[in-house]
Design brief:
By secondary structure, the chain is mainly β. Helices cover 11% and strands 39% of the residues.
């Protein structure tokens, strides 16, 4: 789901047979098709579109840019038509290689297609999430098996040569162009399993893009952000630390978050923990992490909660409405809750800093 600057709502997904969206009825071309519909902020239906091949296809993610143009990504199993779009070879039909390919398509806020692009390997490929920045640059991530072709001049090989398992991938499309040109693409992962994938991706508004996901193999570095609302949360943290050390005995393990602020010495006594960072020091992780060599004595970097400055946060360029945090902390000393000792008492951002 995505929301534009006028609070209109856009939803995409998959359907089979006939789908009814308010007064709009659409019928699938094959087994399953993708759909997109638009509603206004009061829940009134504005339009609905269905699209797909004669097999099973679906839309996995949707994003809106600053001009309220819409981007959709998903997977498809046969050539797919985007009426009026610039797709493959000057036609509105997006070609298909084999198994499941990835599609990315753009339409305006009236539901008219602009262009469609594809990416593929010789196996099954999937996109999971996408986002678009203020410059209409589109970022997509997912999973694929083997060498991934975006264009004849842009081919992303697995990070490990010869890897034939599923790998995570990320890529960028120039949303300002008339054709939706691929800009770059990268793959990453281990060669021991088929579970590597990019689960989400987001630009920061300063030319950087961040992706998260998972893989099943030994890691060089674990950064474990902990919760400490209850004792159960503390026990779960200890379990995760021990599991990380078991999975990768030589990994460098950093623990931060509320549990690290509340009981740094207790965490440092857990075998395998190399560094503990308090609520303030976690923001200095890149500077403190000078190497990944495990240490004999755990490094503890922290201070008392009373010494902390107020940390504000806000969204930038990743959504049509910006959000600003102006209040933090809690004054209620509930007996079961550990938040007051590890967080601020009730603090509000001063007005001169809000503006």
């Amino acid at each position: 789901m995505a929301i534009d600057q006028f609070s209109n709502i856009y939803v995409s997904g998959g359907f089979q047979g006939t789908g009814n969206y308010g007064p709009y009825s659409i019928t699938s071309n094959g087994e399953w098709d993708a759909f997109i519909f638009k509603m206004d902020k009061d829940g009134n239906w504005l339009w609905a579109e269905g699209f797909g091949s004669n097999k099973t296809d679906r839309a996995n993610s949707i994003a809106i840019d600053v001009c309220d143009d819409i981007y959709i990504t998903g997977e498809y199993r046969n050539p797919m038509v985007f009426p009026g779009a610039n797709a493959s070879n000057g036609t509105d039909t997006l070609s298909h290689k084999q198994k499941r390919d990835v599609f990315v398509a753009k339409m305006n806020n009236q539901g008219q297609w602009k262009w469609a692009k594809r990416a593929r390997t010789s196996g099954t490929d999937k996109p999971y999430q996408m986002s678009v920045d203020a410059n209409k640059q589109v970022f997509i991530g997912g999973t694929a098996k083997g060498e991934m072709t975006f264009t004849s001049g842009l081919v992303a090989p697995p990070q490990i040569p010869g890897d034939t398992t599923m790998s995570a991938w990320v890529a960028q499309i120039d949303g300002t162009s008339n054709n939706g040109d691929w800009v770059w693409a990268k793959m990453a992962g281990a060669d021991t399993d088929d579970d590597d994938r990019t689960g989400d991706i987001c630009p920061d508004g300063f030319g950087n893009v961040y992706a998260i996901g998972f893989f099943e193999d030994a890691a060089d570095l674990y950064v474990i952000n902990t919760c400490s609302v209850t004792e159960n949360a503390n026990r779960e943290c200890r379990r995760i630390i021990r599991k990380a050390k078991k999975n990768s005995p030589t990994a460098f393990i950093v623990v931060t978050g509320c549990f690290a602020q509340l009981k740094p010495k207790e965490i440092s006594d857990i075998e395998g923990v190399d560094m503990v960072l308090g609520a303030h020091e976690k923001f200095n992780l890149p500077q403190l992490l000078t190497n990944l060599n495990t240490v004999e004595e755990t490094e503890i970097h922290g201070c008392e909660i009373e010494e902390l400055d107020y940390f504000t946060s806000y969204s930038l360029n990743d959504r049509t409405r910006s959000f600003l945090k102006i209040q933090d902390g809690c004054d209620y000393p509930c007996t079961y809750c550990t938040i007051p000792p590890v967080s601020y008492t009730h603090l509000t951002l001063p007005t001169n800093r809000e503006v």
